Amino acid sequence: MPSVIEVTELRKSYGGRAVVDGVSFTVEEGEIFGILGPNGAGKTTTVECVEGLRVPDGGRIRVAGLDPVADHDEVARILGAQLQQSELQAKLTVREALELYSAFYPNPADWRPLAERLGLTPKLGTRFGKLSGGQQQRLFIALALIGSPRVVVLDELTTGLDPRARRDTWQLIEDVRASGVTVLLVTHFMEEAQRLCDRIAVIDKGRVAALDTPAGLIRRSAGATVVSFTPSAPLDERELTGLPALASVEHRDGRITLTGTDETVDAVISLLARHHITAHQLRVTDATLDDAFLDLTRDHTEEAAA
Ligand SMILES: Nc1ncnc2c1ncn2[C@@H]1O[C@H](COP(=O)(O)OP(=O)(O)OP(=O)(O)O)[C@@H](O)[C@H]1O
């Protein structure tokens, strides 16, 4: 599959502090590519450089082979960016917003079917300020798609939405991709990234900490399998910490939770059998993207110092 976005060694500093410090990734045509990371990691700065809204200090960005700064107008036709809430006047009706933004593009999509697809037709006469959070987000998606872009950039699209509106928005994002549009998605929500993204770049402190499929990120995190149980008799702590491929041990209210791999699970079961200890309420689960994220963005330098 050809790449539609190429970011190579991107750098951006503010006041001498590097907030994006050598970020590289490529986004393939037709995929949903996620950018995930803690607050202040440099996610928005990265995507705003891709959109040509900020000028990088170093590195190279190409969107369909074009430079977002030098070829700004052409890139703006290829790439649909989501507006921020503050960029739309509260008094504008949905119809007025759709007509206004259509006028910005030489070959806009017909906004009527777009509004229909996004469930906005009954709201055409409603002012932006009177829409619910979910309806506002749907309007933002419509406005990002109005120029018939090849790529759409969505930054924190579902923040502040209730669970149902968030799920509806996920369905819309999947529909957008099914229509052939590539999606670059910035998100804080693991569940959202796990459900929607084909691949994810985890950005931490201005660098790419990992880049993989959601399942690949989980597999490569230290504690891919979680086993928990309440032992019928105390276990020797040294034997527990000596288990193979163990990532962590936690004791709480008589319950032991271990993270590691399948090898860790096999070994703990043998250990329990050897000592004739019963594991009450034994649970073995796969780690979630949440666990992988915490592992990938943990401060390993602090740990090493400790
Ligand atoms: N225009 C600016 N001037 C100075 N510092 C900035 C500017 N824009 C961003 N920063 C700083 O750069 C860092 C990265 O910000 P950025 O918005 O890219 O992070 P983020 O990963 O999107 O965070 P969040 O998840 O909180 O939105 C932050 O410490 C932020 O305060």
Automatic annotation (TrEMBL):
Main location: membrane
Top-level taxonomic group: Bacteria
EC class (word): translocase
MF-aspect GO terms: ABC-type xenobiotic transporter activity; ATP binding; ATP hydrolysis activity
EC number(s) recorded for this UniProt protein: 7.6.2.2
Domain ABC transporter stretches: 5-230
GO cellular component: plasma membrane
A biological process term (GO) from this entry: response to antibiotic
Intracellular or extracellular location(s): Cell membrane
Keywords: Antibiotic resistance, ATP-binding, Cell membrane, Membrane, Nucleotide-binding, Translocase, Transport
Record bears the keyword Metal-binding: no
Protein topology in the membrane: Peripheral membrane protein
Pfam families for this protein: ABC_tran
Family stated for the protein in its record: Belongs to the ABC transporter superfamily. Drug exporter-1 (DrugE1) (TC 3.A.1.105) family.
The protein's name in its UniProt record: ABC-type xenobiotic transporter
The organism of origin for this protein: Streptomyces alanosinicus
